[in-house]
Predict the 3D structure of the following.
Amino acid sequence: MTIRDIRDLLDAQVLCGDGELDREVHSACGSDMMSDVLAFVKNQAVLLTGLVNAQVVRTAVMMDIVCIVFVRSKKPSQEIVDFAEENDITVLTTARRMYEACGRLYAAGLKGNGEMHE
Amino acid sequence: MSEPLKFQYEVDGDNFTSAGQASVQVKKVLRRLGLDPETIRRVSIAMYEGEINMVIHAGGGEAEVLIYEDSIEIILRDKGPGIADIDQAMQEGFSTAPDNIRSLGFGAGMGLPNMKRYTDDMQIESTVGVGTTITMRVNL
């Protein structure tokens, strides 16, 4: 699946990373708790979250996450979007709620694939 | 053995928004050194969780990263309240973070367990009322 597919499946708006829409993603996780996100190792992953602060982007940077989707129409500040863009992270925002957004991506073939790092 | 490369950072304890900046810097340094992505990820996640802890619990502190030929050492020192029961603090889900921290995405009691999970060795020295020093090592 590509980031463009995610945008279309979630009727999402692209806040930064327009040029990265053909990037492939292989897994995803949905959480508002950043420490739970940090407990799982995933490659080329997408993070869906309802939390809007700078720590979301910093967590994504640490995890090498390539795309952040803010659910429930949440919009981060320009400063947060700029920080994501500097780190080559595509940022989307969707009106869908967390459960539905995750469900749509999962049903379209984007699995969790999360493995606890041991 | 040659001297390690050494990087030092102040962790500002007053501002949760800026917490994690030192870890972002370290990640950049490690990338520039050409280390493998998995190692970089482990070091930066462990340090990030530690940095967040220092801001939540200890009013900040200092971080030191030492890069040896065969390992990376991360030392986090604070003058916070100390950890009374380290075994309890190491349990997943145990947290003494205030509620407002949970609304910011942390305080789920996963910080110390994550730091241990991502490193090859972790030592905690803590004295109540004096402070805490955590030393983590990731083998290369």
